[in-house]
Amino acid sequence: ATNRTFTMIKPDAFEAGNSGAILKMIEEAGFKIVAMKATKLTAELAGKFYEVHKERPFYNDLCAYMSSGPIFAAILEKDNAVEDFRKLIGATNPADAAEGTIRKIFAKSIEANAVHGSDSDDNAAIEGNFFFNQAERVL
Ligand code: CMP
């Protein structure tokens, strides 16, 4: 079934001017962008977004990093969206990411790893709703 995932183009990729190239790869892989905005998180909002990681040692750095500059947030639609998008972006650590994946090409480190992708359908819905109300996306 056609379904949706949520992505962010993170501050490293935004700052480097790689957003257009990344969005081109996303569209060429068959994803439709059904909501998108440029925004900048506060540390508090980043903390809420990544609350599932709050016991992890990298949580404070991650929240500081994700609020360090502008990002793009987007909802993407495609058959098998969550799994196919995770394949397109590659492993969390760019050192482990497959050739041709977005993180292999654009990520600078495990933290500054260019893009976020939801890890489940439930989280895709939660994360999309965090950034977009009904008037801000294709229904
Ligand atoms: P993301 O898919 O956005 O979800 C959580 C983020 O934490 C992850 O991408 C990484 O950018 C970041 N992170 C930083 N350090 C680590 C780590 N050691 N293990 C996993 N994720 C990490």
UniProtKB/TrEMBL annotation:
PROSITE patterns named among the record's database cross-references: NDPK_LIKE
This enzyme's EC code(s): 2.7.4.6
Matches recorded under Pfam families: NDK
Single GO molecular function: nucleoside diphosphate kinase activity
Gene3D superfamilies: Nucleoside diphosphate kinase-like domain
Alphabetical list of CDD domains matching this protein: NDPk_I
Domain of life: Bacteria
Keywords associated with the record: ATP-binding, Kinase, Nucleotide-binding, Phosphoprotein, Transferase
InterPro entries on file: NDK-like_dom, NDK-like_dom_sf, Nucleoside_diP_kinase
Domain Nucleoside diphosphate kinase-like: 2-139
Active site: 116
Residues binding ATP, per UniProt: 10, 58, 86, 92, 103, 113
PANTHER family noted in UniProt: NUCLEOSIDE DIPHOSPHATE KINASE (PTHR46161), NUCLEOSIDE DIPHOSPHATE KINASE DDB_G0292928-RELATED (PTHR46161:SF3)
Annotated family: Belongs to the NDK family.
Name of the protein described by the UniProt record: Nucleoside-diphosphate kinase
